[in-house]
């Protein structure tokens, strides 16, 4: 099973569990995570959602082999929701969302933090937005959410450099809220999740709604800009070369 789901004290934990691919999102995992987010949103017994990963990776981002197949294989069959469906579900999620970054997060494994209400990160974890190294554009409204979250210059470095960001640097930027030793990560994230889950759900949702309402139109506009740039660059010379290098390295 590529996604495990557990409930405890009104906290639902989603654990990315595609170990053989370092929890990279293929179409099946995008679909499963989207369905799980929507189910949690609709479940009155769930007050808080906690997202984490297994092994040494939080998520290695989009599966690059599938990304190349989207470009080169005329018979490629996209999933029911795919990447866009997952980002829709994140943008619309009405309850507190907590991320516990247990290992490295690449691409959507980093940009998902723009939608987190609280983010915890292990001291050994690292983050990377590899868009320029792949010859593509930002994603998941990160071109809007990251400047809002960490400031324009920090966001420019994160989105333009394709360099790794360590846990302490992420904390100093404000990309994550707390940094924990690896063994303490999930207990700390769960402890805070249970504090929130002990509060009335209607109040939690009202707080989140009032905080996120001013961002809705800007997030949608950023996604439209990003999607247009991504479509323009996907399959272009820089992107094709990067994907070919990746697949050659794997073989």
Automatic annotation (TrEMBL):
Keywords: Isomerase, Lyase, Peroxisome. CDD domains: crotonase-like. It holds the Pfam family ECH_1. SUPFAM superfamilies: ClpP/crotonase. InterPro entries: ClpP/crotonase-like_dom_sf, ECH/Chromodomain_protein, Enoyl-CoA_hydra/iso. It is an enzyme of class 4 (lyase). It comes from the Bacteria. One of its GO terms (molecular function) is delta(3)-delta(2)-enoyl-CoA isomerase activity. It is found in: Peroxisome. Its main location: other. Its EC number is 4.2.1.17. This is Enoyl-CoA hydratase/isomerase. The gene is echA8_10.
